[in-house]
């Protein structure tokens, strides 16, 4: 079926401006992804899945300019014992990065796979992304698979002693980064990945995660404070038996962020938590789009998303739990809530459940509201000034999402950032 | 200490007058009790004194040691020394009781130009005071009032009062919902704070609390006014005969 004219021309223009990397074991995957993009076309505002978020600046040929923000404060996760892998405007920076050797994990640069014909990464690269195109299309992720210029391929074989920290620095006003990572977690292996920074003016980010039986992966991201930055991120996770996957994303500022998470349970008794907290002021549009598919028995999924919005900021949540036939004893939970600090801000939510098994417990809820006046008065009557009381109540609102982070140390650093953001606005 | 003159208050949202000229003076070092039928305006008086939204003062004044209260924000009143133990303490999910207490204590110290308490000093004082009120460590860790029983909430109010050491303590039905032992604990907590420089306004329906916290003066409030003032014997009279005689007497 031919694409509608506008979609076709947008897609062709974007593709014409990009070079398809060639050479090595990922060629087949890249070409297949390109043909997926051509068939699907890039998203436009008429697409149902993009009803609440305008994709035009994400699909435009040029990345809209975004000033590089200098906070003057220590980078996120500074002071943690971690292995840093630094990208500047989407290009790996070996000098700024640590030595990539660490026991229990092997790390290779995506573009170094060129010379390696046989590599396990081709069983994952573009494969999870392609699976994630059904039943809902995610053309920006396919675009990423085809054209990603950098990224890392991580094989977790044991339990590395420290987290891997992907650091995304923003260098140029007009930078456009396409990064693609592949993470393979072996049976019984366990690792933590920390991601932070804006990455570029416009960031197209895909991470494909394959967790084998009884493997565990924690991902904690912080998306960077640059006010004009834009990001479209996709996280694809495939879970084996008794495996555990937990992700948390902090978003502070940014003019446009679309974070998609696609989780698929293939083995029984596995657990996946996908959580996020965002705080936005003014020209801020933040979209969490999550799709969890239960295709195994006795798995638990949790989606916990909290948004604090003020001065006309917009929050979007589209979350779905699909329980396939036979996925009995599924425990699916989904909550999305926004705290609107004024009347100009808005929250648009589309929570969905689709269930084809009879012995399941699924619940979802979505709320939008203002600060509780009774609580605010109670705090103030004890001498807490209004601004500080509002901040306490706001942090309390976000707490359920932040609590999804297992590590107290990481959760505390996330809370510090949130508190800093609130305090700056007094 | 606290001087309320001809206080008239109506609801902001509707045209309903609730306080219709309250006159009341609480001297430093004294305990005043207010009794009165349901709906007579006792809680409203306590809210207006502590600065809750939703009420409009149409006439009159309220001062604490000469400072006009009614123009101030709730936190400014608290820093001056006003404290209200709520009839219905508010639950605040997500805010730890300990964080709440420390933030409040330090905010008041800061507002008065005093140094903030260190975390360890604070902890020491809280633990000690919590112990006398039989509030265990687990309760201190929980979010403010969330999952607390009625009696636990009231004890938590007294703990806050003890930590903040206010000048003017207003207690709104702190005895309701308490069992006999908890009532004794709360009364002991209040009595421990009785001091030359501190005033108390105790709102209650029952003589029982006043057996433990001996009032100097008892007021009867009805339909937005103080209609009778007397000594402790007035509370006993209410206990035995209800309000009918008093209401008839002033009518
Ligand atoms: N926010 C409000 N909206 C509507 N009515 C109100 C409001 N606040 C107070 N009132 C009314 O004002 C009157 C006085 O209420 P208040 O709570 O002060 O009484 P009270 O003396 O404390 O009673 P109780 O002994 O039952 O606690 C009541 O008729 C009550 O319904
Ligand atoms: Mg009352």
TrEMBL record, chain A:
A single BP term in Gene Ontology: iron-sulfur cluster assembly
InterPro entries recorded: Fe-S_cluster_assembly_SufBD (IPR055346), SUF_FeS_clus_asmbl_SufBD_core (IPR000825), SUF_FeS_clus_asmbl_SufBD_sf (IPR037284), SufBD_N (IPR045595)
Domain SUF system FeS cluster assembly SufBD N-terminal: 25-157
Taxonomic superkingdom: Bacteria
Transmembrane residue ranges: none
Encoding gene per record: sufD
Family: Belongs to the iron-sulfur cluster assembly SufBD family.
The protein, known as: FeS cluster assembly protein SufD
Signal peptide boundaries: none
Domain SUF system FeS cluster assembly SufBD core: 172-397
UniProtKB/TrEMBL annotation, chain B:
Domain ABC transporter: 2-248
Gene Ontology molecular function terms on file: ATP binding; ATP hydrolysis activity
Keyword terms: ATP-binding, Nucleotide-binding
Gene3D superfamilies: P-loop containing nucleotide triphosphate hydrolases (3.40.50.300)
One Pfam match: ABC_tran
Keyword Transferase tagged: no
Source organism superkingdom: Bacteria
SUPFAM superfamilies assigned: P-loop containing nucleoside triphosphate hydrolases
InterPro entries: AAA+_ATPase, ABC_transporter-like_ATP-bd, ABC_transporter-like_CS, FeS-cluster_ATPase_SufC, P-loop_NTPase
Record flagged with keyword 4Fe-4S: no
Stored NCBIfam families: sufC
Family, per entry: Belongs to the ABC transporter superfamily. Ycf16 family.
Protein name: Putative ATP-dependent transporter SufC
Species of provenance: Tritonibacter horizontis
